[in-house]
Amino acid sequence: MSPRLRRLLLRTLSGVWLSVAAIIVIALAGELWLRVERHRAFLAAERFKATNVFFAHGMELNGGTHSLWLERWQEYLPGAKLDLTVGGERFVVEMNSEGYRTREFAVPKPKGLLRIICIGGSTTIAGRTNAETYPALLEAKLRERFPGLPLEVLNLGVSSATTEYWYARLPRVFGYEPDVIVHYPGVNDISWRDLPHYAAAHPRRLLAYRSLLIERLFPLPLAELDPYLQETFTTLGDTDRARREHGVACLVGSYAAPDPERLHGEFRRHLDNNAEFWTRRFPLHSYAAWARIVRRYNELFVRFVERYHVPHALVHQRLSDPAVFIDVCHLTPEGIERLADAFLPEVAELVRDTPAYRRFERAQKERAGRRD
Known about the structure:
Layout: H1 3-51, H2 53-56, H3 58-61, E1 69-71, E2 75-76, E3 81-86, E4 89-94, E5 114-120, H4 122-125, H5 134-145, E6 151-155, H6 163-168, H7 170-175, E7 180-184, H8 187-201, H9 203-208, H10 212-217, H11 222-245, E8 249-253, H12 265-278, H13 287-308, E9 312-313, H14 315-318, H15 333-352, H16 355-371
Parallel strand pairs: 5-6, 5-7, 7-8, 8-9
Antiparallel strand pairs: 1-2, 3-4
């Protein structure tokens, strides 16, 4: 090899090595910066926890406290009670004799009573008191809309429950003789079912995402996640067929989350940190990544309910103000009331279609006719 060619080769190799070294340095700097940002998100979450009594005591608000369970994440202890006052807020959680955060109710159902049952996870059971859960607030709003109608709304929510959980328990739910079932799923399926199944099928991506930089440069391809999100809608489809066979009206809600475009400062960092909790089976390190998944879930939700004509409420379109959220899914007391409002119009329509309501309406007309 001639000296000139050797010098050219050495200069080329030196250039390549310098380029590689520069890329490595830039990548390490990027990784370090992202980890500093991650730590800032952790500190923001700690500050938020110190100043927001509802997030700090989310286990009490959302029915997750250890003392409430007969079998944790499966069944509450009948008669369990928690009464805690902290930060000027009182949290009272009371389970009935069936192990639900709702009133005592009769089985068989009393004649003439219209019974609505709400199922779901912690976003269903959540509330400072039993009277401040969304099912209890929904009952109050329905009573105002239908004065004189004998109705009750029962809260059967179980913290951490998925659609799979509720499908397996449908015989028990049907045994309580509901006229209408209201189902609010979403976060638990994504976090504890769909993402873990995706992680098991994609171990290399799971390993690669230990690097915050790789996750940022190569975001989770949502098309790959679709088949796993679809598992939820397969179960919802099975649930819908079962309720049709039993002649029970059923309404399902889309999943509400804070609007990522309206986030700012400390709360955005807090949600970045909180998203890590909800994605710990397939770690993602920003709320933006979580919000992309939620957006895709709701797109598939709309496609599902329209294709199969499933009664539904587009909760995500009515409830997205970050001011009423305490994390990626749970709500302040004001937010819980807004959740009841988000369900109210469609639930009221289903109530009007029930045989129990039609009997009530006929009886009202007959009484009015006799007075005339």
